[in-house]
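User: Hey, my collaborator sent me this sequence without any context and asked if I could get a structure. I don't really work with proteins. Can you help?
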Amino acid sequence: MSYTDFVLNSGRIVLEGISEKFKEEIFKEFDEEITRYMHPKPPVQIQETITFIRNVRKDLASGSQIVACVLTRDTHEFLGCVGLHDINSNCPELGVWIKKSAHGNGYGKEAIQALKKWADEHLDYQYIKYPVDVKNVPSRRIPESMGGVVGRVYQQKNLSGRILDIFEYRIFC
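Assistant: No problem. I've predicted the 3D structure and written it out in C-alpha cell form, which is a compact way to encode the shape of the chain:
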C-alpha cells in the first residue's frame, strides 16, 4: 500500500504526507534546538532537506512508513512533522517534532494520538515504540498520557555527536 497521498484529519490539525511543497518550512524549522534530543542533525543546506523528503517519499510509496506534515486544520499553517516508521513490523515506531513557535499547544500530542488511532485501525502490531531522551520532559508526557510504559533504556549517539539517554516507551493497542 502506498502512503504518498496520506491525509488524516484530527480535531485542530491535519496530517498530510510529506512533500517538497514543505521543504522551506522544514529546512527553516528543523534546527539545532529542535534536534537537540533527536537522532538526526539539522540540515546545513536546503538540498539536504530535499534529499530527505525524496527518500521518505520512496518509503511512503513502498508502504514501509508514514511521514506527514502537521498542519493547522483551519489555515494549513505548517507546525512540524510526525512519523510512523517500520509499519510492517511487529513494533512500529512513532516520532514527532513541532516547530518552536508552536510548542506548548498540544499539537505534538494530538498528532501522535491521531497516528496511533490510525495504526490501531489499520495495522496489526504488538506495541508501538516511542523513543525519547529522558531530559525531554514535554515529549515524555506524550506516551505517558497514552499509557506508555518504559520498556527499554539505552544510550544513543545522535548525528550531531551528542549522547542521548533514551527511554523507549511501549504503547499498546
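In plain terms: Helices lie at 23-29, 46-62, 107-122, 137-145. You can pass these C-alpha cells on to your collaborator as they are.
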